[in-house]
Amino acid sequence: MELDEIAAICKEREIHTIECFFPDAQGVPRGKRIPTTHFLETAYKGFELANAALVWGRQCDVIQNIGYTNFDTGYPDMIAVPDLATFRIIPWRVGAASVICDCRERNGEYVAVSTRHICKKVADEALRIGYESIIGPELEFYLLDSSGAPLYEALECYSMERGALLEPVLRKIRSSLEEMGVVIEACNTEYGPAQVEVNIHYSNALEAADNSIRFKMAVKEIAHEFGYKATFMAKPFSGYSGSGFHVHQSLNDTQGINAFSTSHLEGLDEDLMGYYLAGLLEHAPIIATLGAPTVNAYKRVDDHSFAPTSICWGIDNRTVAVRAIYGHGKANRLEWRGGAADANPYLLIAACVAAGLDGIKERMRPPTRIDGDAYKRKELLSLPTSLESALKDISNDEFAKKLLGEFLEVFVSLGYRELSLWGSVVTDWERDRYLDG
């Protein structure tokens, strides 16, 4: 989209404010609201803001020892340059539009620790070897009342009756997002009280990450309009299912045809889908780590929780890390089931695609598939079980270093910061258990 097209739309729709944002290190949207007149004057050159926004924690806590930027550098400005192709009207707020930005240095180069740029590089790598990475995000969240309790207490997965109670807010979410170009294929009640799962229509990797962050923003804001709170916290309640972020993925060839459509996975013949699958499994610990950036995220993972615990795959099997949807022709795809809902979508999607591409380049072969209950297979290698162990492993991993570059230090530093904060907090559980000791 050209700037004059945007100007015409803004005039026609009486848009007075453009929300310009980008994902921070943990996928939280950051940015500025800019009056339309000024946006149209400055969009090509972008706007300035402190580069601390790319390296701080979820609640803007800064860490001194990060090399990219710190107090010694003075946290200088970077430039957030709007990607005009992402311009969208915000349907639920009169007079507002939004655009996603790329973060650049003053010399015009992309900021190395920008997670959107990391995702874009991986998508471009796929194109260079002749494929478009196709991603279908699947996200879960809870709808809560003003006190923070689920809107209903029953556990009613796929319930049409319970779904009807949530339909007013869900209908507005679906219709508003579709008007923004983010198509929702389906939604349903999930395996927790007032928990919802939503399938976002597939698109290329970068667009899928963009759609995921727009989806989270829309869900939270529209829920608030109804007096509700939506949370993508990975494990908000003990005893109830955690919220996941599943990544459906395939590759289109230069003709736009699914390159997995003729796969012979069942016989483990050497083919593209098999190589890609093997790459996902080879780098599963890193994908799992980038898909679980918080202490809380690891609490959603347990046997028979529908969150995978081991490095394995199976055909249409929901107990494994990678579920192969096979035998569907052009709909053949692989589903990574290990992501938490609070993951940065740019990192999780980038990790999946990069791992799959590595499997193709190295012609990796997947192990024998798992049939039946993978949770019972204790001989399988485990996925990371805690943030602390995951950080130790990712710090020295060559695949992670290549994928993340300078951002690896940011991710690890923020992770250890989370551990430090968690370790210093006295919880209600501790008081209940030890106060009378």
Structure, explained:
Helices cover 34% and strands 20% of the residues. By secondary structure, it is α+β, with helices and mostly antiparallel strands. It has two domains: 111 residues, Glutamine synthetase, N-terminal domain (Ubiquitin-like (UB roll), Roll); 222 residues, Creatine Kinase, Chain A, domain 2 (2-Layer Sandwich). The strands form two sheets. Strands 7, 8, 9, 10, 11, 12, 13, 14 and 15 form a nine-stranded mixed β-sheet that branches. Strands 1, 2, 3, 4, 5 and 6 form a six-stranded mixed β-sheet that branches. A hairpin with a 6-residue loop joins strand 5 and strand 6. Helix 4 packs across helix 5, helix 6 packs across helix 8 and helix 7 crosses helix 9. The radius of gyration is 22 Å and the shape is globular. The protein starts with a helix and ends with a helix.
Short synopsis of the structure:
The chain is an alpha+beta fold and 437 residues long.
Highlighted features:
437 residues, Creatine Kinase, Chain A, domain 2, 2 domains, 6-stranded mixed sheet, 15 strands, 34% helix, 20% strand, globular
The amount of beta strand, in percent, is 15-25%
Order of helices and strands: HEEHEEEEHEHEEEHEEHHEEEHHHHH
Low-confidence stretches: none
Shape: globular
Overall mean pLDDT score?
95
Gap between N and C termini, in Å?
66 Å
Assigned CATH class of the largest domain: Alpha Beta
- Rg, rounded, reads 22 Å
Instruction: Note the total helix count.
Output: 12
Number of domains: 2
- Classify the fold: give the CATH topology of the largest domain: Creatine Kinase, Chain A, domain 2
CATH architecture descriptor name of the largest domain: 2-Layer Sandwich
State the major sheet.
9 strands, mixed
Number of strands: 15
By CATH's scheme, which homologous superfamily of the largest domain applies? Glutamine synthetase/guanido kinase, catalytic domain
**Class based on secondary structure composition and strand pairing:** alpha+beta
Instruction: Estimate the helix proportion, in percent.
Output: 25-40%
